[in-house]
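Listing S7. Sequence submitted for prediction.
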Amino acid sequence: MSRKFLAVSISGMAILLGACGSSSPTDQIRSTFSEATSGLTSGDGAKFCNSLTPTAQKTFGTQIAAATGGTTCAQGVTNLLKATKAISTGDWASFCQLIGPKQAAGIAQAGPRLKTAKTCAAAATALAATPAGKASFDQLGKQLDESLSRLGKGKLEKITITGDTAVATVNPSQPGDKPIKFQKVNGSWKISE
């Protein structure tokens, strides 16, 4: 290979790489949001959590661990999304496994009151058979499905960038929705809150 060919090739690669990294901060923020929503809607907890700042991953991971028993942000998100599917199909054994031992124990404690075995799956099955329990599980599944659908279709609007931080709103929005905050971490935009 000639030196001239090598020099031209390296020069061409540098131009291509420069073009790839030249998207605007607004485009980068939109891309981060798209990756996060894609991760949520596809059930890919790792993809979602990789869109968060390390601090947000830790905070979210701690919060979701209480609900799912997941020990990491990615595992917690994946468990939550799988648990949502288990609710919709009535797969209570999987649901109880995915929500973690603490939450499963809480559901299992309802078993004796319902005259069922003292397991989460038996209690959830019995709860789902009651009108109030069925309504509660249906409502929970519906809320989660609607939230995921809305996020999947959501578009960022009103992106305001101030240095290494940004704030944006999602459309369509609902009353009570908070703006999404972003932070630039090691040159990449991540969701911080």
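Caption to Listing S7: primary sequence and predicted structure tokens for the chain studied. Residues 24-153 form one domain. Residues 41 and 148 are 6 Å apart (CA to CA).
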